[in-house]
Amino acid sequence: MDYHILREIADSWVLLAMFVFFIGVIAWAFRPGSRAEHRDTANSIFRNEDKPAADAADPDDAEVKEART
């Protein structure tokens, strides 16, 4: 294949394929019913956190000292 033929294919069909893919991604992201899924995903890091983690039982523990200094 010649460079010019590949260039013409890239300028037309590959550009069209990338545009269709882009529109498909946008349509998928903003599809009906996806708002609840996006909200659930955004709030997943806060799930099951009612209080801070408890300190170790022994304050003289070496790992606890390293973490506090």
From TrEMBL:
The chain crosses the membrane at residues 12-30. The keyword Transmembrane applies. Residues 41-53 have a biased composition (Basic and acidic residues). The keyword Translocase does not apply. It comes from Celeribacter arenosi. It comes from the Bacteria. Keywords: Membrane, Transmembrane, Transmembrane helix. Residues 41-69 are annotated as: Disordered. This is Cytochrome c oxidase cbb3-type subunit 4.
